[in-house]
Design a protein that fits this description.
- Keywords: Aminotransferase, Pyridoxal phosphate, Transferase.
- The chain is of the alpha/beta class.
- It contains 13 helices and 13 strands.
- It folds into two domains: 126 residues, Aspartate Aminotransferase, domain 1; 231 residues, Type I PLP-dependent aspartate aminotransferase-like (Major domain) (Aspartate Aminotransferase, domain 2), CATH 3.40.640.
- 43% of the residues lie in helices and 15% in strands.
- The strands form four sheets. Strands 2-10-9-8-7-3-4 form a seven-stranded mixed β-sheet, with helices on both faces.
- Helix 4 crosses helix 5, helix 4 packs across helix 9 and helix 11 packs parallel to helix 13.
- The N and C termini lie far apart (49 Å).
- Bound molecules: pyridoxal-5'-phosphate.
Length: 389
């Protein structure tokens, strides 16, 4: 019967990893894959993660299941980190999930159960967003978000589009470090957007996958908090993959902010039932690490210090890249103002292919670059190769 299945296209980013690995040229540069890299090109394990793991191995007494909801202490600590004062005294249903992707999928399934039929998604966005929403049965409606040639946010166009959304529609927001554009909403824009969402009775789903990679842990949650302060209900999908470097441990959470505690209990029971029929119980190891770090002042300070170094490295390469590329493309001064690991360059696909073929510089056809893929020593040479296009 399997012959009835259509072959699915390879994920373009995963295919790019294969091409990069097979390239034997010295000095090849990978600006494709979306993970943090240090000056040696490695994706390091945080010192605090190593120490937390050491403690877990020494002290863990059982490998019995955690429940479908996961560990409540992890969830409380992550909630405080993600929302700070805006999250206190809110009724919230929390569930530990396999990564941010697992959180997005459960949020989408829950929305479908609640009778939400449409979700508004900015263009461009992370390609997995529409894919997850569609497989959960939601209709994905696009709205303008970012203009690549001018490197600017299409705020008025976005607001006009969202004014046509209907009460009960959901709207996807990136908390910080927008993937793929790095574009940053101002505080005023977050306020205007939150007011519109509240007035129109829309349900925000906020994806927070890079807290701490943009301007700092608190600054990166400011927009999310503005939304939470304005609305009675919201969904949050959190990933610990990047900011704790726990990618393969699949660590995240979904939070549903509800009007009352009773409703939160009901939302939580539905999330747990959805998890039970998908994967039953979440993986434990990554969440146990995060909980250990956030619950220990010394480990937490060390984790924050290391995260600061990562953010500083990405920001400094970002500045140099913007200065270099803007010699030819004036508009790319904007890259310096963008945040997080990604920017989306105004390059044609043939330029992307030429950079790959002639200079062993790898990025997807969309020209989304991961700035963390660059070592400081390479920046000037890579800029020259871009300028030679
Ligand atoms: C915008 C965004 N959301 C969510 C995720 C989910 O990450 P994970 O499932 O690895 O935790 C990612 C990962 O790249 C992302 O870029």
């Amino acid at each position: 019967m399997f012959e009835t299945l259509n072959r699915q296209p390879d994920d373009p980013l995963l295919a790019l990893i294969g091409l990069y690995r097979a390239d034997a040229r010295a000095g090849k540069v990978d600006l494709g894959v979306g993970v943090y890299r240090d000056e040696e090109g490695a994706t390091p394990i945080f010192r605090a993660v190593k120490e937390a793991e050491r403690r877990l191995v020494a002290g863990q007494a059982t490998k019995s299941y955690v429940g479908p909801e996961g560990d409540p202490v992890f969830l409380e600590r992550l909630w405080e980190l993600t929302t700070g004062p805006s999250g206190r005294d809110r009724a919230v249903a929390s569930l530990q999930t396999p990564g941010g992707s697992g959180a997005l999928r459960l949020a989408a399934d829950l929305m479908a159960r609640m009778g939400v039929t449409r979700i508004w998604v900015g263009v461009p966005t992370w390609p997995n967003h529409p894919a997850i929403f569609k497989v959960a049965g939601l209709e994905v409606v696009s709205h303008p978000f970012f203009d690549v040639p001018s490197q600017s946010i299409l705020f008025d166009e976005m607001m006009e589009a969202l004014k046509t959304a209907e009460k009960g529609d959901a709207v996807l927001l990136h908390a910080s470090c927008h993937n793929p554009t790095g574009a940053v909403l101002t505080a005023d824009q977050w306020h205007a957007l939150s007011t519109l969402i509240a007035e129109r009775g829309l349900l925000p789903l906020i994806d927070s996958a890079y807290q701490g990679f943009g301007r700092g842990l608190e600054a990166d949650r400011a927009g999310l908090c503005t939304v939470l302060d304005a609305v009675p209900e919201a969904l949050l999908a959190i990933s610990c993959s990047k900011n704790f470097g726990l990618y393969r441990e699949r660590t995240g959470a979904v939070f549903a902010v509800t009007a009352t505690g009773d409703i939160a209990l009901s939302a939580r029971s539905n999330l747990a039932a959805l998890a039970r029929t998908a994967y039953s119980m979440p993986p434990d190891h990554g969440a146990a690490i995060v909980s250990e770090i956030l619950g220990d002042d010394v480990l937490k300070a060390d984790w924050m210090a290391e995260l600061d170094v990562m953010r500083g490295r990405v920001a400094s390469i970002r500045q140099r890249l913007a200065a270099g590329l803007s010699r030819r493309w004036q508009v790319l001064t904007a890259v310096a103002e963008q945040e997080g690991m990604f920017s989306l360059l105004p390059l044609a696909e043939e330029d992307v292919l030429r950079l790959r073929a002639e200079h062993a510089i790898y990025m997807p056809g969309s020209a989304r670059i991961n700035i963390a893929g660059l070592k400081s020593a390479e920046v000037d040479a890579v800029v020259e190769k871009f300028l030679s296009l």
